[in-house]
Amino acid sequence: MKIEADPEELGFDPARLARIDDHFARYVDDGRLAGYHAVVARDGRIVHSASAGHRDVDAGLPVTDDTRWRIYSMSKPITSVAAMVLWERGAFELTDPISRWLPEFAEPQVYVKGSSSKPLLEAATEPIRVWHLLTHTAGLTYGFHHAHPVDELYRAAGFEWSAPADLDLAGCVRAWARMPLVFQPGTEWNYSQATDVLGRLIEVVSGQTLDAFLDENVLGPLGMTATGFAVDDPDRLATLYLANPATGRYLSAEAAGMGAMAREAIEPTWLGGGGGLVSTAADYHRFTRMLLGRGEVDGVRVLGSRTVDYMGRNHLPGGLDLEQVGRPLFAEMPFHGVGFGLGFSVVLDPVAYKVPVSAGEMAWGGAASTAFWVDPVERVTAMFFTQLLPSSAHPIRSQLRGLVYQALID
């Protein structure tokens, strides 16, 4: 991507920014990553853009500015913004029970104890509300957690890294509604399919399919023309790789037996608002600029400024951080000193977080090791795109934060 401002004029040391290139080039050279693209901006203006390696190693195709990346859970903030567009129009209250639109959730059952084959359940004492979906406090889960008997039920129903081929979004939501909740709604935080359910809620409330609503109300207005559930140019799509635990090097998803997951970006069977989008660095830069601009980019307003401010507050029970109310499972970032807003994480205490970021930083990442953050105090945004599952394979996100902030010298 084109550099838009002199780094020194915006408080960065160019030589220190170059350390980003040196560091992640080693990831490519030793086979930990096939390729990557990192972008740093301040006040919405790009001061550094670095890339290396290949979007497709076997085909010899390099990473380019228009490479289409599977952003997986970086879809969640986009879907959450779409939901808040409806909220701003008075379509629902954050406290509304979702069963008003999704009657399959009218009588949720909650896991108490026992195995996946013989679980003891109890009735939910609180309905699942819209804000529970936005904050992952609904009691839903993911099959890939491998940490709870309910996770096993999700896997048995065909939900681990993908969904059964014969189910659309509505069918997926009905299937999840038949599963017990991991905990009583609103009492804990658990990374889950909640944003996918939120996507279905958007469909029912708006009367549009999720992709149509996103295009009309978020992606289109922001000029994110290369972002969608199906890649618009398959030749530009980054190949998906998995981290080989035996060697530390990448291995193609096809070779690892996850070809179905790799093909979802080309022929999606359902519209996963929690993880189904494909995007480019330029497109997602527009999205981060919108968050930094409190809902507005280049005169186009998607959300009101106070709405974005509110999304960026900690909405976890009791104002606690993820370490205190979150389940100790896979997620897209550390838990200490981090809360959760309406659709993304929010840094509460940089000291506890152990990275020199600002309180109020909004961020999230995706399963294929992608990441973004928006620092409203330093007015810095940063993004990292690559194609490696899982995101826990390497400490890319904390390293990138360190490399960006050590280059900021004003």
From TrEMBL:
UniProt keywords, alphabetically: Hydrolase
Pfam families for the chain: Beta-lactamase
Record-level Gene Ontology MF annotations: hydrolase activity
Domain Beta-lactamase-related: 20-400
PANTHER family: BETA-LACTAMASE FAMILY PROTEIN (AFU_ORTHOLOGUE AFUA_5G07500), BETA-LACTAMASE-RELATED
The protein's name: Serine hydrolase domain-containing protein
Native organism: Actinomycetospora chlora
